[in-house]
Amino acid sequence: MKITYQRFESADAEELVGLLSGDTWPFHGSELVDPAAVRQRIEESGYDDQDNRAFWIIVAGQRAGFVRLTDLRDETPLFDLRIRSGYRGRGLGGQALAWLTGYLFTEFPGVRRIEGTTRQDNVAMRRAFLRSGYAKEAHYRDAWPASDGRVHDAVGYAILRRDWLSGTTTAPDWDDERLL
């Protein structure tokens, strides 16, 4: 499956509103997105300015998802990755994660590391992180409220530039409390 990435342009605003508010996002902060909130973020240049850059994920000529890169002036940018429900389960998330990792380290020489967080039960994304060389760095208990009232654990992953360059993954020193 050939995947391409196309930079978001303001002319695409209503299509982005439709994508984000016309689907459900079970592993995001809110399963449903308010169209007015998307329009406001677009008006505030929240998808394309010095700190933010966004891309469509294109599969067979169709916009199958969207990735937003944030905190681009920081040494540790973040991202929001969304795959439309009809395209989930096909490995697009992992491919998009690998792409955005290479893009950030290539286009932004000041980026030292990239971070991402997901819910503990988002097994597909957690596997994608590991396959892309990210290391688990954090586990936040009862940190992610869901729309059904349940609270899930959140899990944080990151990749270091040096690991990406060498093709290795270095794990955090989980036993550092022995030094206290």
What attributes does this structure have?
3-stranded antiparallel β-sheet, Aminopeptidase, 5 helices, 7 strands
How would you concisely characterize the structure shown here?
The chain is built from 5 helices and 7 strands; from the N terminus they run βααβββαβαββα.
What does this protein look like?
With 180 residues, the protein is of the alpha+beta class. It has one domain (3-172): Aminopeptidase. It is 27% helix and 31% strand. The protein is built from 5 helices and 7 strands, in the order βααβββαβαββα. The protein has helices spanning 13-21, 35-43, 92-107, 123-131, 161-166, and strands spanning 3-7, 53-59, 62-70, 78-83, 113-119, 135-145, 151-160. The strands form 2 sheets. A 4-stranded antiparallel beta sheet has the order 1-2-3-4, sandwiched between helices. Strands 5-7-6 form a 3-stranded antiparallel beta sheet. Helix 1 (13-21) packs antiparallel against helix 2 (35-43) and helix 3 (92-107) crosses helix 4. The mean pLDDT is 92.
Helices and strands in order, then pairings?
Layout: E1 3-7, H1 13-21, H2 35-43, E2 53-59, E3 62-70, E4 78-83, H3 92-107, E5 113-119, H4 123-131, E6 135-145, E7 151-160, H5 161-166
Antiparallel strand pairs: 1-2, 2-3, 3-4, 5-7, 6-7
